[in-house]
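RECORD TYPE: inverse folding
INPUT: structure tokens
STRUCTURE:
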């Protein structure tokens, strides 16, 4: 039996919270997906373009609303139970409950009413894998804390509140992509989001390929601090280039021509970071056009160039991610492969012809452990809808 069906979750909740048995009709279940980014990496906090899709790997939260302003959550995988008081100021504990407490703090800051709860969490979404398990927990908790009012809140606005949870309370200076994907995604499509205007539209995935995520099995290293360093380097590039062109407010405003003129005035590391971002925005446009034209060769070329740029210019790939991409590119029928998400470990995203999935899986399972001494995971995924209440 699937342990994550709503009925099973409610049974698990009752086992941890006997009070839920008497008030079963008030118990709710929320599902909140992870995401995979197809192209547009580290562009979000540079006011650029991204193309993520939510995936059918998700966190499920079954909860009993309570009147006591206390939140307690139990992970069903480890049995670990952690909690906090809604009226206490946010305090970091260095554990997963921080994402829930930060979300509560950001909702309070936005003057949204929240209620206490006792909940259990189950997940099919790998953690620390670049698939946005943190945004998934934030949106799941936001929906639970808001109760029935969650339906009435604008989805992009709620994504911004959860981004604020991460920026102001958890302390990662992440962009909007992850929370936006988890909050706003639609089944079967990717989302083209302009992180400057917040305009977005669905983009159909090309016919004849499936989405396959491969997990390196490596823990991400130094993620939060390195991530914030990249952001600071991008800001340094803006500062330098604005001296040449005062209309530059973010790397979104920087054309390849301006960068070519200004690169020599920048620190070489900063210039490389900027070169990635400027070309990456262009690659998002290329991939969207190629998806719409069914031009899979162009998609493959853009994914390849994107990976090389993340490896050599933005310097956030890893030997494990590079190995997965190299293996993927050697298998006929793998149309496109690149690392996805924040970097420093985690996952690759691949577009694979259905008839090639078995050969691709076999190649990864055979060659990757020999190259890295790590166990990979090959995870076929489908584009899923954003956070919702399912019971
Ligand atoms: C992490 C961040 C996102 C985005 C990606 C890189 O997932 O949370 O905001 O910057 O990295 O594209």
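DESIGNED SEQUENCE:
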């Amino acid at each position: 039996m699937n342990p994550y069906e709503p009925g099973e979750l409610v049974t698990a909740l009752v086992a941890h919270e006997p009070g839920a048995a008497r008030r079963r009709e008030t118990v709710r279940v929320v599902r909140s997906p992870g995401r995979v980014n197809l192209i547009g990496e580290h562009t979000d906090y540079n006011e650029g373009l991204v193309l993520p899709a939510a995936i059918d790997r998700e966190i499920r939260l079954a909860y009993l609303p309570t009147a006591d302003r206390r939140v307690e959550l139990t992970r069903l995988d480890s049995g670990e139970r952690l909690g906090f008081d809604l009226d206490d100021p946010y305090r970091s504990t260095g554990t997963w409950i921080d994402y829930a407490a930060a979300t509560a703090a950001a909702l309070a800051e936005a003057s949204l009413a929240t209620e206490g709860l006792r909940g259990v969490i189950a997940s099919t979404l790998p953690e620390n894998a670049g698939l946005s398990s943190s945004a998934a927990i934030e949106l799941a908790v936001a929906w639970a804390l808001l109760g029935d009012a969650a339906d009435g809140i604008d989805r992009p606005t709620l994504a911004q509140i959860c981004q604020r949870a991460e920026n102001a309370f958890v302390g990662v200076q992440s962009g909007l992509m992850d929370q936006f994907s988890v909050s706003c995604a639609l089944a079967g499509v990717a989302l083209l989001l302009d992180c400057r205007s917040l305009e977005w539209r669905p983009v159909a995935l090309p016919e004849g390929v499936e989405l396959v995520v491969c997990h390196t099995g490596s823990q991400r290293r130094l993620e939060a601090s390195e991530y914030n360093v990249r952001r600071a380097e991008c800001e340094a590039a803006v500062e330098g280039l604005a001296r040449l062109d005062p209309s530059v407010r973010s790397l979104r405003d920087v054309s390849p021509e301006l960068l070519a003129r200004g690169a020599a005035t920048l620190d070489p590391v900063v210039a490389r970071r900027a070169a990635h971002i400027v070309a990456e925005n262009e690659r998002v446009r290329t991939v969207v056009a190629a998806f719409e034209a069914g031009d899979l060769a162009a998609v493959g070329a853009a994914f390849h160039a994107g990976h090389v740029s993340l490896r050599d210019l933005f310097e956030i790939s890893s030997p494990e991610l590079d190995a997965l991409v190299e293996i993927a590119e050697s298998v006929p029928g793998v149309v496109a492969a690149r690392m996805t998400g924040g970097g420093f470990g985690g996952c690759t995203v691949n577009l694979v012809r259905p008839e090639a999935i078995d050969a691709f899986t076999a190649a990864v399972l055979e060659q990757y452990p020999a190259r890295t001494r790590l166990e990979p995971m090959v995870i076929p995924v489908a584009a899923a809808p954003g956070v919702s209440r399912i019971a």
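NOTES: The domain at 6-205+385-390 is CATH 3.30.230.10 (Ribosomal Protein S5; domain 2).
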